[in-house]
Design a protein that fits this description.
181 residues; alpha+beta; Immunoglobulin-like; 2 domains; four-stranded antiparallel β-sheet; 3 helices; 27% strand
Length: 181
């Protein structure tokens, strides 16, 4: 996964299995229009293709690249909240595995991160207001695989932090592992 933002508008995937290079560039066109320019380099295999997911809180888009070319993806974000999110956090780019079976597995594993805990009723199985164990595990695995972030289970339920101890770069994370954290 990589973040394309105004602060870091370019990224190159070094582990492409299909192309010699895959380069991304983020561009804000106007208040509600954002482009992601994708340049796929020389193909390494004749019949290969790569699938990328572009997402943030407002956008979820899947794009398949099969040929060496320059591509432009245009995202319209009409709401002020969406524009603020795009201006601050940009868009995330996820590379899926090669092959339809692996793509289906990736979509299934990603769905496990989000599906569950959707109801306001705590006793409903799978969809109750609680985060089911499979969903928690899927989110912990996602953070480990995509960001190299290893979460350790802790028994502490409430932590009081002296504000003077908070430094630039510190991360304060909520522990509802529901796919949005």
């Amino acid at each position: 996964m990589s973040d394309l933002t105004a602060a870091t508008p370019t990224y190159s995937f070094a582990n492409s299995k299909c192309f010699a290079s895959v380069d991304f560039q983020f561009e804000k066109v106007d208040t509600e229009t954002y482009n992601v320019h994708v340049k796929t380099g020389k193909k390494l295999k004749t019949l290969c293709r790569e699938t990328y997911i572009f997402a943030n809180t407002e956008i979820f888009h899947i794009e398949v690249f099969s040929f060496k070319a320059d591509h432009t993806l245009t995202f319209k974000v009409p709401t002020a909240d969406g524009q603020a999110d795009m201006d601050f956090g940009g868009i995330k780019v996820y590379q899926t595995c090669e092959g339809i079976v692996d793509d289906i597995k990736s979509v299934f594993n990603m769905a496990k991160c989000f599906i569950g805990g959707l109801s306001h009723k705590p006793n409903v199985p799978i969809f109750g207001s609680h985060v089911p164990p499979y969903m928690e595990k899927a989110n912990v695995e996602f953070l480990k695989e995509s960001k190299g972030q290893i979460l350790e289970p802790r028994d502490i339920k409430k932590v009081l932090i002296d504000p003077a101890m908070i430094q630039d770069g510190d991360a304060i994370m909520i522990m509802r592992l529901d796919g949005l954290d």
